[in-house]
Amino acid sequence: xxxVDNLTxxxxxxxxxxxxxxxxxxxxxxxxxxxNGAGKSTLLKVLAGLLPDPQGSVHFDPGHTxxxxxxxxxxxxxxxxxxxxxxxxxxxxxxxxxxxxLRWPGGKDRQKVAAALEETGVYDLRHRHIGALSGGQRxxxxxxxxxxxxxxxxxxxxxLTGVDPATQEGLMAxxxxxxxxxxxxxxxxxxxxxxxxxxxxxxxxxRRIVADGTPDEVYTPHNIEATFSVSHLGHTHAEx
Length: 240
Ligand SMILES: Nc1ncnc2c1ncn2[C@@H]1O[C@H](COP(=O)(O)OP(=O)(O)OP(=O)(O)O)[C@@H](O)[C@H]1O
Hints:
Elements: E1 2-11, E2 14-24, E3 29-33, H1 40-47, E4 55-59, H2 66-69, E5 70-73, H3 87-99, H4 107-119, H5 135-149, E6 153-157, H6 165-180, E7 184-189, H7 192-198, E8 201-206, E9 208-213, H8 215-218, H9 221-228
The protein binds adenosine-5'-triphosphate (ATP).
């Protein structure tokens, strides 16, 4: 449904990803895991269509463009939370992206936004300015915007960061339900335990795809070592 073939991404002279080939399927909850600077966010941005002209090929659901079918949830800290909008406004942005220029949000859009805010547990905060939210509440608002958009492909960059354990459970259950409803869910995370518990597809990345498969296939000492072992100079096995 979604994937890349032989993808290489360079930022100037720095190679962030090299020769990456991986597929993400509808109905699957996938976790992309790796150390800092491994290229995880870069992979997600390519899938979201946000990096122009990557080297290699990117596949989408036939007949769709990324703008139509992808809901991308960036890392929370990359957003401007001082922007003067409410929780409701942010969730509605999930719909307005779909409306086109000439249509105002209608009753159906308001219904979808209300349902998304209910599902993520922030409906009662809908009139609040987004600058006045806690980290966990902000993450829920981003998820509400994603749900309101109703994309088939959900791409989330570290959605568990800054979220308390009880809320993490709720978020993971929510994402699992989205996959069970037939969406492709791809999450970048540092939390191996949560990924093993909730996901049916793990991708270990360290500039290259180190391993790709079910948690049982992927989660071996050899693969973990190859993904995470870092010397003091920052060189990793993947670079060897
Ligand atoms: N716009 C950019 N310009 C230059 N280098 C970049 C840019 N974006 C990312 N990089 C570099 O590319 C590499 C991969 O970055 P990326 O953000 O994909 O890593 P990541 O695995 O998501 O890391 P983290 O876990 O720290 O978020 C890093 O070395 C990073 O410094």
